[in-house]
Design goal:
Blueprint (H helix, E strand, L loop, with lengths): L12 E4 L5 H4 L9 E4 L9 H11 L4 E4 L13 H14 L3 E5 L19 H18 L4 E3 L13 H12 L2 E5 H10 L4 H7 L5 E6 L3 E4 L2 E3 L8 H14 L4 E3 L8 H18 L14
Parallel strand pairs: 1-2, 1-10, 2-3, 3-4, 4-5, 5-6, 6-7, 7-10
Antiparallel strand pairs: 8-9
Helix pairs in contact: 4-5, 6-7, 7-8, 8-9
């Protein structure tokens, strides 16, 4: 009989690969990290010495990619050339899965920031159509990530209802960012656990965790430049209790501590997964659409 496909493209506890930590990570035993993730825009067509270093990691670890600039919510035409480049990049390096932010980053230009999409029915239709087209070009399912935001553009719908509607209408998957839930719940005064529990179990492909900056008692800034906070660790434990030990990636984008400290956070993820139940064996997800 055919082997059952896993819901997840990877398993265990992963770490985002950043150029600022690449040399130190080359000396880390592969057993300390279960998988890695990069932004494809930072690595497509990169050759030479840096390209060889990237290949060093893709030959040793399962890899995911998390996009920065597809701008799913923008009014400008979808960047189909970027999607074709991403497809080639995934094929070249054996990348297992692709995700993007449920946001936009400009119209005809690049703002280098992730802007909130209006929570409206019209925006659901617009974004879902673009996601569906992206999946057709990629020849694969993709996931979208819930993003942090500070001033909502429109609140005709709640964030939960908007997110669920996009997932359903686009028929895509979810990268659930635990840190972003905590940040948004404080900034916009809602219950983080209720948001997490409302997300559809069957669409979750993996989690993100990261650190944020405490600007004030009622304001958090999603920086990815600090250690994971206690509220994020607690919500992650709650998420494992609800969803099971979903694969989870630690993001750190700057202000890098010693590699040993990052590996300690990766190990803490693994321990929380173990407490929630035995980790599934890693199995390749056939993400081809059809």
């Amino acid at each position: 009989m055919p082997q059952e496909k896993s819901q997840f493209p990877v398993s265990g506890a992963g770490l985002g690969l950043r150029r600022g930590m690449i040399d130190q990570l080359m000396a880390v035993p592969p057993s300390r990290i279960d998988f890695m993730e990069v932004a494809p825009e930072n690595w497509i067509n990169v050759g030479g010495k840096l390209g060889r270093k990237f290949r060093f990691f893709t030959e040793r670890y399962p890899f995911l990619i998390h996009g920065l600039s597809l701008s799913l919510g923008a009014p400008s035409p979808l960047n189909e050339n970027l999607l074709r480049d991403i497809r080639k990049f995934m094929d070249l390096h054996g990348i297992r899965y692709y995700s993007e932010h449920l946001s936009y980053c400009g119209d005809t230009g690049q703002l280098y920031d992730l802007m909130p999409i209006p929570f409206t029915e019209d925006a659901v239709d617009h974004v879902a159509a673009r996601i569906a087209r992206a999946q057709d070009i990629l020849g694969r399912r993709m996931a979208v990530e819930n993003v942090s935001y500070y001033a909502p553009a429109d609140t005709e719908m709640s964030e939960i209802d908007f997110t669920l509607a996009v997932l359903e209408k686009a028929d895509c998957d979810l990268l659930l960012d635990i840190n972003n839930i905590v940040v948004n719940s404080i900034n916009h005064r809602y219950d983080a656990r209720s948001f997490m529990l409302a997300m559809p179990r069957e669409r979750v492909r993996y989690f993100h965790v990261a650190g944020h900056y405490v600007e004030a008692e009622d304001l958090r800034v999603d920086t990815h430049g600090d250690a994971v906070s206690d509220p994020v660790w607690q919500l992650l434990a709650d998420a494992y209790a609800h969803f099971g030990p979903v694969p989870t990636l630690l993001e750190r984008d700057f202000n890098f501590p010693p590699i040993a400290e990052l590996l300690d956070e990766v190990e803490r993820v693994r321990q929380l997964q173990a407490a929630a139940g035995a980790r599934p064996e890693p199995r390749r997800l056939d993400a081809t659409r059809g």
